Amino acid sequence: MSRNKIYNEIAVDSFQLKGGGTVEYILRFLMSVISSIVNYYIHKWLDHRRKDS
Length: 53
Prior knowledge:
Shape: rod-shaped
Radius of gyration: 22 Å
Helix content: over 70%
Structural class: mainly alpha
Keywords: Membrane, Transmembrane, Transmembrane helix
């Protein structure tokens, strides 16, 4: 095996084992917040259109 392949396997494996779950929870939380914000503005836009009709 070459040195680069060994280094890449070790670096990737250790990164995936440490903190992967934490990153997943953070991403889920951020997606939830972003979807709530988008939902708020879509609802606001639709209400504005309904009042104009």
